[in-house]
Amino acid sequence: MIHLIEIETNTKIQAELMLGWLQQITFSNGDIPLVNDSAFGICLARMSCLNMD
Predict the structure, then answer these.
(1) From the first residue on, what is the mean pLDDT of each consecutive set of 10 residues in the chain (53 residues)?
(2) Do 32 and 38 contact (CB within 8 A), yes or no?
(3) What's the CA gap between 30 and 8, in Å, rounded?
(4) Is the pTM of this model over 0.85?
(5) Distance between CA 47 and CA 36 in Å, rounded?
(6) Which of 13, 22, 24, 51 is most buried, by the most CB atoms less than 10 A from its CB?
(7) Distance CA 15, CA 9 (A)
(8) How far apart are CA 8 and CA 42, in angstroms?
(9) Nearest to 50 by CA among 7, 16, 25, 8
């Protein structure tokens, strides 16, 4: 059971770091830069990710 708690804690920490990075790279109009193989419309919208609890 302890392993599940560690996994949950580590997952939450990583998700918070990723969302923080997303907020940092987002342009003032809400768009994100398209780098490497990025594309619009293939995943959740940025605001959907930011509103998750």
Answers:
(1) 86 92 91 82 72 66
(2) yes
(3) 29
(4) no
(5) 22
(6) 22
(7) 10
(8) 26
(9) 16
Residue 52 backbone phi and psi in degrees, to 5:
-75, 140
Q: Give the whole-angstrom CA distance, residue 9 versus residue 4.
A: 9
**Tokens 């998700």 map to which residue?**
15
Calpha distance 21→50 (Å, rounded): 11
Provide the Cα torsion 14, 16, 19, 25; round to 10°: -90
Beta strands in the chain (DSSP E): none
Residue 2 DSSP SS3: helix
